[in-house]
Amino acid sequence: MTKINDNYLKLPGSYLFSTVAKKISAFQEANPDKPVIKMSIGDVTRPLVPAVIDAMHKAVDEMAAAETFRGYGPEQGYDFLRNAIVKYDYASRGIELEADEVFVSDGAKSDCGNIGDIFSVDNKVAVCDPVYPVYVDTNAMAGRAGDYIDEHWSNLYYMPCLAENGFMPQLPTEKVDIIYLCFPNNPTGVAATKEQLKPWIDYARENKAVILYDSAYEAFITNPDVPHSIYELEGAKEVAIEFRSFSKTAGFTGTRCAYTIVPHELKVNGTELNGLWNRRQCTKFNGVPYIIQRAAEAVYSPEGQKQTKENVAYYLNNASIIRNALTDIGLEVYGGENAPYIWAKTPDNMGSWEFFDKILNETAVGTTPGAGFGPSGEGYVRLTAFSSKENTEAAMERIKKLL
Amino acid sequence: MTKINDNYLKLPGSYLFSTVAKKISAFQEANPDKPVIKMSIGDVTRPLVPAVIDAMHKAVDEMAAAETFRGYGPEQGYDFLRNAIVKYDYASRGIELEADEVFVSDGAKSDCGNIGDIFSVDNKVAVCDPVYPVYVDTNAMAGRAGDYIDEHWSNLYYMPCLAENGFMPQLPTEKVDIIYLCFPNNPTGVAATKEQLKPWIDYARENKAVILYDSAYEAFITNPDVPHSIYELEGAKEVAIEFRSFSKTAGFTGTRCAYTIVPHELKVNGTELNGLWNRRQCTKFNGVPYIIQRAAEAVYSPEGQKQTKENVAYYLNNASIIRNALTDIGLEVYGGENAPYIWAKTPDNMGSWEFFDKILNETAVGTTPGAGFGPSGEGYVRLTAFSSKENTEAAMERIKKLL
């Protein structure tokens, strides 16, 4: 008789963003005259930039002629894209990488989720709290998280990120094997400096732990002390895998392209994780569409860089509008300076789902309740800077009247 | 200390098609004056059809304007595509499906590989021999296959498909929990009739087993007695998941779109596998690019149907050329009538890697050695019908001179 993976049955409720989306939809259906402004899911709204559009039209035309048609590509991505990533995202910051340390994929979510394949179930995993739910849920699915009791997974090591510690996780006080870090952070919007990251490299080297470093939001960094890649820190290649995405950098949320760096220097008991991930991708993945890889390559052209940076600046301006508005009405506000996320304390210690409901029902603005990101997210809501400027301003006007 | 998934270390050699590709590349480098005709990997060569190209240009333009831009889509696929699949691939054959039983993905390889996530490690898995390596390797990675000893995985149940049984697997003589079936078959090219499939439905119902049915090649079926979907058989919805792809149907090998059907009726101990797979996809996948889903939708338009069917007919004509040529020189030949694959017995009981090398080195034609698909593939090579007609004819001329 077939046996299912029982770990799936331990997962509480449904995926956070689905729940939020359903609540917003239900409100919208009941209130068709009050158009909801969504500052909930981290989805961009600016169209793809002209350089990317041009590259895609050209690639589509290549697919129309036998001489230029592309069938199966390399599972790890075409060299033209891997080389561009090495040159523009790493060499430009003094980081040397080989092209075969870059694995192009359909999304950082896929990679963050699938990376667990190459690790034993028998690893102690540390996650920040609050945290991007994918890290937790995928470990729960794999059986690495234990049981879900009182809003905590019994086998995970939680690192609370609270106002009192500047939303920076503290080094584990017990031995852990795999550490998820995300900077600039989702959901708190806080970025880590080199000085703040260095102890993690030291910890990982001493304890032979692996850091899974999500830098999907690096394009939003404005502070020169904040590294864009963990490999800007010495020794990081020996201990860290880095996840990057074009989703927020270039508006690819519906276009789907990302990449993961697995350095050759990263070894566990002499085994290169690069080889394991390569095997995983060759066996369970067939590469990103050629057209999409050409789109991603165009992000690195001079026009692509200029155009995508304008969009990032546009969103950062929205972040500033949100920060200012919420500060004006007396909320404690974090993030939004090196990240597209603003993390706001609820007024009067209101529960985060309660505040989410209140904002939605009274102002028709969608946010994400902090508790959805983990127990320490209780008492906060997350707002994203990805709406249009007009909608961002309109949403802030509505929220100002709420309090 | 981090622990890796040791199952990866049990995997022999590298992925079959990578090895074949490397051997072909090495030959080509050493013999630049002898252009290799590749009849090895199942990659198409005809360009995308005009209906698909037009749909992609239109979708690219939509991505260029804020009013029509698409960000994150549903992880399971857009309704426009799910509904088209239900209507044209299933309702047209009398099969009723709900749109939420369809999960659009980036490839049947991904889905065949990832589906294991929702099953316990503790399942007895049956595979045909020879077999598409992804089924075996992904189960090995998950720890379901045991150890690799004498070219066999100790915990897998092998179902030999040999000339003496018409390359049809025989029902397991012991209880198995998960059964991979692929018809029309890769690599043998043999198709199964309803009568041949019925006992499998009965077996699965009696033994509460799940059938993972790969019908990626259904577009090549010419025999009216051969079902295109396993759901053409009564009761199949209770026991089977079906994998489909646009790769061979519409030349999407480099465009990347496929789908998997998980019927609501398919339950294990009362749990719907549909819900588990939905959770898996929502947590570890972020959907197929909007542009690519519009491309797939266009396959179902009247022009798209006409144009893609012309390409399938073109490849089937190549298959016929290969069958005739190899038969003429006295080889035993199977498949190629309802499938793009031809399975040819090596002459004089030559080993399949030896015959592969001989064909490559003496005629500059790439094939795939049968032994790469499993122990019972020894003594065969696989040829694919996906080259141009000219190359197919040229390759056959060369091989005719070989023997």
How many β-strand runs of chain A? 17
Greatest interface (CB-CB under 8 A), with counts per chain: A-B, 81 and 82 residues
**Residue fraction in strands of chain A:** 5-15%
The rough form of chain A would be described as: globular
Alpha carbon gap, first and last residue of chain A:
58 Å
| Strand order of the biggest β-sheet of chain A | 2-10-9-8-7-3-6
Total number of helices of chain A? 13
What is the string of SSEs of chain A from the N terminus onward?
Answer: HHEHHEHEHEEEEHEEHEEEHHHEEHEEEH
The value of Rg of chain A in angstroms is: 21 Å
What number is the mean pLDDT of chain A? Answer: 96
Low-confidence stretches of chain A: none
Q: Helix/strand/pairing class of chain A, anyone?
A: alpha/beta
Sketch the major β-sheet of chain A: 7 strands, mixed
Helix content of chain A: 25-40%
Quaternary structure type: homodimer
